[in-house]
C-alpha cells in the first residue's frame, strides 16, 4: 500500500484505514448537531407543560443551540487556523459532555436557553475544526464521499435521536431530562475515538513546521512521501481580513447564502416536527413519531446517495437540481396543505431526499474553495451565516404556525429554497476532480 500511495501521490492516494477512521470520527460533530437539534423537539412535548412555555420561550429554546453554533463557528474557526486543528479536536467534545449533563438539572426556561446556547457553541466549534482536518488529509477522488459522510452523520444523529426519544418517552414525567442528557453518551465515544489523531500536515506546512509535517505524512501515507506531494505553500500567515478580499468574499456569500436558504426551513422542520405533523393531521399521541422516523430515513438516504452522486454528476448540476426538487416539494406542501396524508407525506419525502446533496455540499464547497491558512475561518464564517437564518426560522416557526397557518408557512419555505436555487445558478462552481490547490484558486465565474 505504501508504494502504491507514493506512486499516486497524496492527492491520489488510496483510502487507507487511517483515512477511514478519521472520516468516521470527524463525522461526530454533525452527528451530535443532528442529535441535539432533534432531541429537543421531542423533549419539548414534556417541557412545554412542565415549564409553562409560551411561543416566545419555545422559539428561544429551539433557536438557542443554533445561535450558539453561529458564535462557535465564527470564533473557533479562526482560532483553529491560528493554533491548529488537533488541539481543538478534543476540547469541544469535553465541553459537550459537561453541558449535556448540565441540561438534566435545569429548572427554568432561561437556564435551558443558556445551556443550549453553550452546547451550540461547542458543536459550532467542531465544524471548522473537524471538516478542515478531514479535508486536508483526504485524496481528491474520495473527498466528496468523505465529506458527504459528514452530512449523512447529521441525519444519522437525527434518526438516532428519534429512536432514543421514542424509547425514553415511557420513563415518566422526567423523561425530558434523560433525553437532553443522552447527548453525553455519543460525545464520550467520540472523545475516545479521536484520541491520538495527528495534526494536519497542510496546516503544519502553512506555519513553517515542515519537519513535523513530514513526520505526519510519512506516518499516514508511507515513508517515501514528501512535502512536495502536498503542493502546499509554506509559512502562509493567517489573516481573517483575507476573507474580505473580493474573490474570497464572493465565495463566502455563495456558500453562506445557499446554506442559509437550505437549512432555515430544514432546521425549523426538524426542531418542531411534532407540531408540524400535528398541523398536517398526520398523527395523534405518539403516532407522529413513526411518520417522523420514516421522513428522517429519506433525509438520511439522500445524503448517503450524495456520496456517490457528487462525483458522478459533479457539484454544480447536483446542487442546482436538488434545489429545484426541494422548491417544488415545498410548493406542493404549501398549496395542498389540506390534501390526503399520502400526498403530504410524499411532499415531505421528496423534500427530505433532495436535501441530501446540498447538505453534503455545505461541507464540500467551503473546504475546497479556501486555502489552508483560512480554511477553518471560512468554514466558521459560513456556518455562522447559515445559522443566523436557521435560528430566525426556528424562532419564528411557532409564531408562523399560530398566525398564518401551516400552508402559508410552507409557502415561505418555498420562497427560501427558491432563493437558494437562484444563488446556485448564479455562482455554483464545479470542483470535481481538482486538487485542493486548484479548487482554492477558482473564481466563481468559472463553471
UniProtKB/TrEMBL annotation:
InterPro entries: MFS_dom, MFS_sugar_transport-like, MFS_trans_sf, Sugar_transporter_CS
SUPFAM superfamilies from the UniProt entry: MFS general substrate transporter (SSF103473)
Membrane topology: Multi-pass membrane protein
Pfam family, one: Sugar_tr
Protein name: Inner membrane metabolite transport protein YgcS
Domain Major facilitator superfamily (MFS) profile: 22-432
Transmembrane segments: 22-44, 56-80, 87-107, 113-134, 146-169, 175-193, 252-277, 289-311, 323-354, 374-397, 409-428
Annotated gene: ygcS_1
Subcellular location: Cell membrane
Organism: Sporomusa silvacetica DSM 10669
PROSITE patterns: MFS, SUGAR_TRANSPORT_2
Domain of life, per lineage: Bacteria
Annotated keywords: Membrane, Transmembrane, Transmembrane helix, Transport
Main location: membrane
Amino acid at each position: 500500500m505504501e508504494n502504491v500511495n507514493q506512486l499516486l501521490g497524496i492527492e491520489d492516494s488510496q483510502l487507507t484505514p487511517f483515512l477511514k477512521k478519521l472520516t468516521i470520527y470527524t463525522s461526530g460533530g454533525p452527528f451530535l448537531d443532528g442529535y441535539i437539534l432533534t432531541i429537543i423537539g421531542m423533549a419539548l412535548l414534556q417541557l412545554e407543560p412542565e415549564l409553562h412555555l409560551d411561543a416566545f420561550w419555545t422559539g428561544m429554546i429551539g433557536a438557542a443551540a443554533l445561535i450558539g453554533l453561529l458564535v462557535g463557528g465564527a470564533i473557533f474557526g479562526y482560532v483553529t487556523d491560528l493554533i491548529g486543528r488537533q488541539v481543538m479536536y478534543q476540547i469541544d467534545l469535553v465541553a459537550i459532555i459537561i453541558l449535556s449533563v448540565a441540561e438534566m438539572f435545569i429548572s427554568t426556561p432561561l437556564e435551558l436557553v443558556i445551556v443550549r446556547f453553550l452546547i451550540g457553541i461547542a458543536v459550532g466549534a467542531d465544524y471548522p475544526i473537524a471538516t478542515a482536518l478531514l479535508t486536508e488529509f483526504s485524496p481528491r477522488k474520495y473527498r466528496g464521499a468523505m465529506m458527504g459522510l459528514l452530512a449523512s452523520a447529521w441525519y444519522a444523529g437525527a434518526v438516532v435521536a428519534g429512536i432514543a426519544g421514542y424509547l425514553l418517552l415511557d420513563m415518566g414525567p422526567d423523561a425530558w431530562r434523560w433525553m437532553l442528557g443522552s447527548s453525553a453518551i455519543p460525545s464520550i465515544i467520540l472523545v475516545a475515538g479521536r484520541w491520538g489523531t495527528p495534526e494536519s500536515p497542510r496546516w503544519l506546512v502553512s506555519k513553517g513546521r515542515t519537519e513535523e509535517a513530514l513526520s505526519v505524512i510519512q506516518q499516514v501515507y508511507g515513508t517515501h512521501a514528501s512535502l512536495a506531494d502536498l503542493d502546499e505553500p509554506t509559512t502562509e500567515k493567517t489573516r481573517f481580513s483575507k476573507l474580505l478580499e473580493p474573490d474570497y468574499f464572493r465565495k463566502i456569500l455563495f456558500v453562506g447564502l445557499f446554506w442559509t436558504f437550505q437549512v432555515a426551513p430544514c432546521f425549523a422542520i426538524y426542531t418542531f416536527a411534532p407540531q408540524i405533523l400535528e398541523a398536517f393531521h398526520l398523527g395523534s399521541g405518539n403516532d407522529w413519531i413513526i411518520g417522523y422516523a420514516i421522513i428522517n430515513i429519506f433525509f438520511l438516504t439522500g445524503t448517503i446517495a450524495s456520496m456517490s452522486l457528487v462525483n458522478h454528476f459533479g457539484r454544480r448540476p447536483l446542487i442546482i437540481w436538488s434545489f429545484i426538487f426541494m422548491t417544488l416539494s415545498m410548493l406542493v406542501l404549501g398549496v395542498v396543505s389540506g390534501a390526503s396524508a399520502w400526498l403530504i407525506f410524499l411532499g415531505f419525502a421528496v423534500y427530505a431526499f433532495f436535501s441530501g446533496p446540498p447538505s453534503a455540499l455545505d461541507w464540500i464547497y467551503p473546504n475546497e474553495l479556501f486555502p489552508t491558512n483560512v480554511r477553518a475561518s471560512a468554514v466558521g464564517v459560513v456556518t455562522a451565516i447559515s445559522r443566523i437564518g436557521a435560528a430566525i426560522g426556528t424562532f419564528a416557526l411557532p409564531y408562523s404556525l399560530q398566525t398564518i397557518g401551516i400552508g402559508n408557512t410552507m409557502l415561505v419555505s418555498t420562497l427560501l429554497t427558491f432563493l437558494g436555487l437562484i444563488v446556485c445558478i448564479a455562482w455554483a462552481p464545479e470542483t470535481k476532480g481538482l486538487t485542493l490547490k486548484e479548487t482554492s484558486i477558482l473564481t466563481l465565474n468559472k463553471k
